[in-house]
Write a structure and sequence with these properties.
Chain B: InterPro entries: Intradiol_dOase_C, Intradiol_dOase_core, Intradiol_RC_Dioxygenase, Protocat_dOase_a. The complex is a heterodimer of chains A (234) and B (199). With 234 residues, chain A is mainly beta. Chain A is built from 3 helices and 12 strands. The radius of gyration of chain A is 19 Å and the shape is globular. In chain B, strands 4-3-6-7-8-9-1-5 form an 8-stranded mixed beta sheet, with no helix packed on it. Chain B has a two-stranded parallel sheet with strand order 2-10. The chains are: A mainly beta (234), B mainly beta (199). The complex binds fe (iii) ion.
């Protein structure tokens, strides 16, 4: 059996965070119970190209009704790898986000900013055999939330990744360089200071597509696994 | 220097149209839903249902649950489980996803099959991952079955949990007119706080 590296609590936010109010009733209050790594499942759902539609990687097109979505077009790309520096090919990424005005298409979003009839804000892509992914979207706007007076979320894109086993599962948020709201955001600030920079994408002129979209690079590191098959007999 | 883990962030309140849009009545597809089993799937067909409660005992209406399990023969549909003496079931993948806000009681419901034990001497179980607004890292728990008392007592993970907390891992079996139902509630905090594993 193979062994998986644990969650690195120097990199991960705590369950209960003073600044982010909803954590006080929703984060577990007792210690997590250790599972002997030899007894933990070393498996998880694997997905193939069948879950990716032809426009799923292009949020500038997958919600069009009668025109182009409003806002600044961007292309987001990067590598998904594990802690050993190994690329993770064929890993499913799901993304969702607000539109350029900071409004989600979600029925429960009450923010008084316009919905864009041509923007859905949800998509999927898969890493290639080098562990690289790429999708097109509109730069999301900031939006207010009820955590504290005058609270605003920085621009962000929600990411959901699987990786090789259920233990490598990650849901996170990608932020943008130079956003002045980062310093006031308890969700971003919940992350240990030394690890926060890993959530901020990097602007790249190389990735930028001339005359079309600004480029951002966001690499994602999942927990390390070694894929050793279970024995063929018991 | 080897790369360090990307930090986790909350799923937030507005994930439904991205992760489980079909269930939330948005007009696009999702990668997996709450029904894992079809008529042809081998094994005992069960319904798995429950609710998620916060530290005040209030029902959580915006959680997302994912389950992952072995098939009736105790094999996982994954390349790391290459045990040829246990059959794969072409009609069972083993992964499901369900939100809690879609019905009035904020229940999650999965239709699936009872897994077989994945190893000799282990009890059957279903792995559960829970995400929600206010949860900066997802939590992992396991559903064991209350009609498997002997197997649970012998199971190395179940039996490693403090005896007074083992009950939080047990789904209760009911016979209903529409089939076998297991009920399993998740308590994020409090006296009945569910055991969450450091997987
Ligand atoms: Fe958000």
């Amino acid at each position: 059996m193979s062994v998986l590296s644990g969650r690195d609590w120097k990199s991960q936010p705590p369950y209960i965070d003073q600044g982010y109010k909803s954590t006080s009733l929703r984060g577990p209050s007792r210690s997590l119970v250790k599972i002997d790594p030899e007894l933990a499942e070393m498996t998880g759902p694997a997905f193939g190209d069948e879950v990716i539609g032809s426009l799923d990687h292009d949020l500038t097109r997958n919600g069009r009704v009668n025109g182009e979505p409003l806002g600044e077009r961007i292309v987001v790309t990067g590598r998904v790898l594990d802690e050993n520096g190994q690329s993770l090919p064929n890993t499913l990424i799901e993304v969702w986000q607000a539109n350029a005005a900071g409004r989600y298409i979600h029925k429960k979003d009450q923010h008084d900013a316009p919905v864009d009839p041509n923007f859905l804000g949800a998509g999927r892509c898969m890493t290639d055999d080098q562990g690289r992914y790429r999708f097109y979207t509109i730069r999301p706007g900031a939006y207010p939330w009820g955590n504290h007076p005058n609270a605003w979320r920085p621009n962000h894109i929600h990411f959901s990744l699987f990786g090789p086993t259920i233990a490598t599962r990650l849901i996170t948020q990608m932020y943008f360089p130079g956003d002045p709201l980062l310093a006031f955001d308890p969700i971003f600030e919940s992350v240990p200071e030394a690890a926060r920079g890993r959530l901020i994408s990097e602007f790249s002129l190389d990735v930028t597509e001339e005359g079309f979209a600004l480029g951002y690079v966001f690499d994602i590191v999942l927990r390390g696994t070694q894929a050793t098959p279970m024995e063929g007999t018991e | 220097m080897s790369p360090r883990q990307t930090p986790s962030q909350t799923i937030g309140p507005f994930f439904h149209y991205g992760l489980n849009p079909v269930e939330a009545n948005y007009p696009h597809s999702q990668i997996a839903g709450h029904c894992l089993a079809s008529d042809q799937t081998l094994g005992e067909h069960i319904r798995l249902t429950g609710r998620v409660f916060d530290g005040n005992g209030a029902v959580v209406e915006d959680a997302l649950l994912e389950i992952w399990q072995a098939n009736a023969a105790g094999r996982y549909a994954h390349p790391n489980d290459a045990r040829s003496n246990r059959a794969l079931d072409p009609h069972f993948h083993g992964f499901g996803r369900c939100g809690t806000g879609a019905n009035e009681q904020a229940r999650f419901t999965f239709c699936t099959i009872k897994p077989g034990p994945a190893q000799p001497g282990h009890a059957p179980f279903i792995s559960v991952t829970v995400f929600m607004r206010g949860l900066l890292n997802h939590v992992y728990t396991r559903i064991y079955f209350d009609d498997e008392a002997a197997a649970n007592a012998a199971d190395p993970v179940f039996s490693s949990v403090a005896p007074e907390r083992q009950v939080t891992l047990l789904a209760k079996r009911y016979h209903t007119p529409s089939g076998i139902e297991y009920r399993f509630d998740i308590h994020m905090q409090g006296d009945q706080e569910t055991v969450f594993f450091d997987l």
